[in-house]
Amino acid sequence: MNVRSARPDTADYYEDNAEGLRDLGVPVAERVWQTVKNNKWLIAILIAASLVIGVVATLIMTPKYQASARIEISRVENNVTAVEGVETQDQVLDAQYYETQYELLKSRSLAEQVVRQGKLASDDAFLKAFDIVPTDAGFARDPERALANVLLDNISISPVGSSNLVDIRFTSPSPAVSARIANLWANEYIASNLSRRFGATNEARQFLEGRIEQLRERLETAERELITYAAERNLFTIETPESGSSSETASQTLVASDLQALNTALAQATTERIAAQSALDATATALSPEDAAAIQPLRQRRAELSAQRAQLRATAGEEYPTVRALSEQISQLDREIAAAERRSGSAVRARFQQALETEQRLRARVNELRDEFVGQRRDSVQYNILQREVDTTQALYNSLLQRYREIGVAGVGENNIAMVDAAEVPSVPSEPNLLRNLLLSLLIGAAAAGGIILLREKLDQSVRDPAEVPELLGVPLLGSIPASRENNLADELESKHSELYEAYFNLFTTLGFLSENGVPKRLMLGSTRPAEGKTLSSVALAKILAERGKRVLLLDADMRHSGLSKYLDVSGGKGLSNYLRGEDDWQSLVQLAKPFNFELIPAGRQPPNAAELLAGDRFEEFLGKLEARYDHVIIDAPPVLGLADAPLIASAVEGVVMVVEANRGKVRMIAQALDRLERGGGKIFGAVVTKLDERNQSYGYGYGYGYGYSYGEKPKLSEVA
User: Fold this and answer.
1) Which of 373, 239, 348 has its CA nearest to residue 285?
2) What's the pLDDT tens digit per position in 502-537?
3) I want to staple 170 with a disulfide (CB 3.0 to 4.6 A). Which of 11, 181, 547, 580 is the partner?
4) Which helix (DSSP H) or strand (DSSP E) does residue 54 occupy?
5) For the chain, which residues make up each domain, given as ranges?
6) Planar angle of CA 186, 189, 191, nearest 5 degrees
7) Are 313 and 323 in contact (CB under 8 A)?
């Protein structure tokens, strides 16, 4: 039986408040910071231990020296023929090229070349630096491979930013060996690159020689086929096509040239024939323009003479000699004009006939040449194919021949890899680096501390957030009590401005809602373990009830190990144990709880059988007598786990307030204690979380619990009203 089943309205009220507190949320950063503060000493110890280990490891490590040689790798083109179509056009991108060079710098073949050129297998300084014993099985079986592995394990290739520079670094226990290997590595890489380029040039020269010979033979064959075909088809050109083009070959032949000339003459003859025919059909006289121009002066002269004759005829008459003379002249002109017209008509007809015959002969010849030209056009298709083959082969031949000459003059050219800075013998070791090792140790220590703290937080089953009490334990949260920072708790309870007093006053207020009559008359305060704040809570509640004018009795039922003497002036001697063993004068057991204004009955002497004394009816009868005299009886009960006392007391009171210490204990044990009390017939009102401190600040509890009284100096007891 619990509060939820017995008083659902009160339980739901407190549970709703607890849910509201959880809904407020706690910033993750604040909780992390609080966790760090709570475990600051553990963190400090782990980090300090990690730093010490780092320093010791640094001191015992063998010093290593790193030497660096810097080289420059320039971009080169690999197309040795410079002829489009001879080699692939897929050029390696710059990034791919440099990545290839970096991998070549780290290749095993280069390492083995360094071993051979440096004669490292017999170099005592190198073997001593790496503690290599020539009699070892691996070294004796394949010394070159074994030493190459050593070099590859200690070499590093580092490109310098986005430049063409590359640093070759070698690390060894000997500074002289480091510098020597770094320089040897750079020089061997440069030599191997030059060797590869020289080999590529020889291969290119051999390739070009073979290709040029093939193209020369192919060009001769193509030209021979072209000339033979042209002779067979009468395709003799009178003009070489421009730029080696053969698309207009047929139009450049003799037939085409003759056809063009005759076609022009035919057009001119047709024009002359048309002009002669027009002159023939133009007029009856059929005068040509030349004859008409010759006759025109005669006609003009006749017109003038006719005009003179007409004028004289009008005045002198027909028989006038002058008139007759003019008539004779006119007749003579008429005869001359007629003779000229007759001569002109014969000439026009003769010219027309000649022009017609010329046109017909030219047209016939043009038709013959046209048929011959059409045949040559059909034959020129194959001729053009042969001509293009000759042109293409000629262009390839000339290009390869020019490239072959360039290679012969330039040879291998300059090496695209050059030494920029040779490695120098280092004066200080690069390893171990104390600062770097300390930083690494600091990170490892911080990580270890974080892991341990996280594991502790996960394994910690104590109550950290009081708002989680309803969820974890299934009972309402009645109050949250901060840890006291005063040595004299009585003075702190006496001060109404203290955090402790405010917290217990809030608990008193909450207890007033547990029943219709306010705070229960018979109230037990229990705990799972000793020293959880149960006795202090009993004293504080009794004091506050007494201040409200109530008759209060504090009954110390912890007959095994009483703790009231830490807070009250309790005189030794008789107490509850005496009454339960048979003494009837219980009034004589009552004492004044100094310095507070309420009464108490101490536990008395420790009996050998405390549970048997509480199991009888006498204890419950005693509580009935106390209830008849006092308004409230506060019972300070012993811890629950391991003892049978607390369940016996819980069954005789109205209810139990469970005191839970924050940051200690386990929720599982608290739940077991509550279950024991309920099975024993006890009624659980709720739980009070005590001793909240700075570890609970991220949940809204701990220092600063009150309303700010703690920021100034607390008033003395004499100043409290």
Assistant:
1) 348
2) 989 999 999 988 878 889 999 999 998 888 889 999
3) 181
4) helix 40-60
5) 3-19+465-707, 27-61+432-458
6) 110
7) yes
DSSP secondary structure letters along 499-516: HHHHHHHHHHHHHTTSST
Q: Is the distance from CB of 69 to CB of 186 less than 8 angstroms?
A: yes
d(CA 277, CA 355): 9
Confirm if 633 and 627 have CB atoms less than 8 A apart. yes
Inter-residue contact 115 to 147 (CB < 8 Å): yes
Q: Is 272 helix (H, G, I), strand (E, B) or coil?
A: helix
Sort strands 155-159 and 165-172 into parallel, antiparallel or unpaired. Answer: antiparallel
pTM, 2 dp: 0.49
Cβ burial, residue 90 (10 Å; 0-12/13-18/19+) = exposed
Q: Identify the H or E element spanning 689.
A: strand 684-692
**In this predicted structure, what is the pLDDT of residue 698?**
55
β-sheet bridge partners, residue 524: 635, 656
Instruction: Please give the Cα distance from 552 to 407 (Å, whole number).
Output: 118
Assigned CATH topology for domain 3-19+465-707: Rossmann fold (3.40.50)
Query: Token pair 């109050």 is at which residue?
Result: 479
Q: Which of 352, 509, 417, 394 is closest to 188 using CA atoms?
A: 417
Q: What is the DSSP string of 222-243?
A: HHHHHHHHHHHTT--BSSPPGG
Burial class of residue 309 in the structure, from the number of CB atoms within 10 Å of its CB (0-12 exposed, 13-18 middle, 19+ buried) = buried
**659, 692 Cβ separation under 8 angstroms:** no
Residue 501 CA to residue 488 CA, distance in Å, equals 13
Both tokens of residue 279?
């002159």
Q: Which residues pair with 480 in a beta bridge?
A: 689
Q: What are the tokens at 383?
A: 């001729």
Low-confidence ranges of the chain (pLDDT < 50): 1-15, 17-25, 79-92, 240-247, 250, 283-285, 410, 412, 703-721
3-state DSSP assignment of residue 657: strand
Contact 495, 717 (CB under 8 A): yes
The Cα–Cα gap between 646 and 530 comes to: 12
Distance between CA atoms of residues 232 and 235, nearest Å = 8
What is the tens place of the pLDDT at every residue in 14-71? 445 444 444 444 566 766 777 777 778 888 898 899 889 988 888 887 888 889 999 9
DSSP element (H, E) containing 23: helix 8-24
Among the listed residues 138, 12, 163, the one whose alpha carbon sits nearest the alpha carbon of residue 73 = 163
User: Residue 661 and residue 609: Cα distance in Å, rounded?
Assistant: 28
DSSP 237: B
Q: Are 373 and 255 in contact (CB under 8 A)?
A: yes
